[in-house]
Every structure is written in C-alpha cells, then in structure tokens.
Design brief:
Blueprint lengths: L4 E7 L4 H10 L6 E8 L6 H7 L4 E3 L8 H14 L4 E4 L8 H6 L4 E5 L11 H8 L3 E8 L9 E8 L6 H24 L6
Parallel strand pairs: 1-2, 1-4, 2-3, 4-5
Antiparallel strand pairs: 5-6, 6-7
This protein binds 5-O-phosphono-beta-D-ribofuranosylamine (GRF).
Length: 195
C-alpha cells in the first residue's frame, strides 16, 4: 500500500468524531494517519483521545490572537510544521478567515450534524425538530468561505422519531457521524470525490 496521507484534525470539544477517525487510521489499510490534533480550547476532552495513542496535540487558543487572520496563521503554521496534507474539522467551533480557506481549498473538510443544505449553524437538532422533518442525518463537506456551504462529499440519513428531543436525535445522528467521517475522508484521499 502507498504511504498514508498526513491528516491534521481541528477540535474544540468532546472529540468523539476525532476518536472515530483515530480508530479508522489504526487499520493498516486505511489511507490516512493523524499527525496532529489542534484545539482552540485548552481543556477540550478530545485532546485525551489523541494523547492516549501518542498523537501530538497542540492548543492554540483563539483568545490569544488579535484577529481571526492571526489565529488562522498560527493554525496554518502548526499544520505545515507537522507536514499535514489534509485537514479534518471535527467539532471545531471557529469560523476561518477567507485566506485560510483559500489556502486549504479542496484539502479541508468538516462534519455537520444535519443533511445540508438544511439546518446550518448551531442548535441544529432543535432546528430540525422545529421544522418537523421526518428524516435528518449528517454531512461531510469541503470547507468553503461561507459556513456549512462547501461541496458535499457524503451524507447519511436517520429517521426522526415521534417524541425525539434534541438530545435523542443528536445521539442517533452522532452514531452515523462516526461511520460517515472515516468513509468520507477515504473518498477524498482516493480522489473519488473532488472539490
Ligand atoms: C458533531 O455533532 C459534529 O457534527 C459537530 O459538532 C459535534 C462534535 O462532536 N460539528 P464531537 O466533538 O466530535 O464529539
């Protein structure tokens, strides 16, 4: 098998999607390895998933930077220093500057817990329940300048059940997220989906 592609993961919190990517990468036949995890939040739970398996982590607090551009420049430098080729955002709660998105175009992807283009932004499951949809799901997409709007790579659907709360729906969607993200990253690496 050819060399694994070097992936950097950006997180802000719990990191369950990061964990699913780490588990996928543990398979010798999976075409990626995670070489760096960056969090903008110092005590993000997800950092421990990386540390547990010896993946280098870096905390880059957005609050230490005067501008979005300066914060992104620090992230960009860390990704370059680690030799990152593809960036996966997994619950990363900052919006990037246009310059950063341009630099990584086609090489930065994100997971969102709805069937985009429906229900962008935050409080996604609340939005889905308020709209009364019978199906929801998750989307992995290329990151573009406009939030939650880049080209779609893959989606997975789940039913919305009577009596669902944002929490029960989130849990059902999250289970799919953990399967979809490794699959979508593989599709990108293998060139089967392009920006
Ligand atoms: C996920 O639902 C993801 O789709 C959204 O934020 C959540 C992050 O969860 N962007 P985790 O940190 O990966 O557990």
């Amino acid at each position: 098998m050819s060399a694994k592609r070097k992936v950097g993961v950006l997180i802000s919190g719990r990191g369950s999607n990061l964990k699913s990517l780490i588990e996928a990468c543990a398979d010798a036949n999976y075409p990626a390895e995670i070489v760096l995890v960056i969090s903008n939040i110092a005590d993000a739970g997800g950092l421990t998933h990386a540390a547990n398996v010896g993946i280098p982590t870096k905390v880059i607090p957005h609050k230490s930077f005067a501008s979005r551009e300066a914060f992104d420049a620090a992230i960009n430098a860390a990704l370059h220093d680690a030799g990152v080729e593809i960036v996966c955002e997994a619950g990363f709660m900052r919006i990037h500057s246009e310059g950063f998105v341009d630099k990584w175009e086609g090489r930065i992807i994100n997971i969102h817990p709805s069937l985009l283009p429906a229900f962008k932004g935050t409080h996604v499951h609340e939005q889905a329940l308020a709209a009364g949809v019978k199906t929801s799901g998750c989307t992995v997409h290329f990151v573009a300048a406009e939030v939650d709007s880049g080209p779609i790579i893959a989606q997975s659907a789940v039913p919305v059940l009577d009596g669902d709360t944002p929490e029960t729906l989130a849990a059902r969607v999250l289970e799919e997220e953990h399967k979809l993200y490794p699959l979508a990253l593989k599709l990108v690496i293998e060139g089967r989906v392009r920006f």
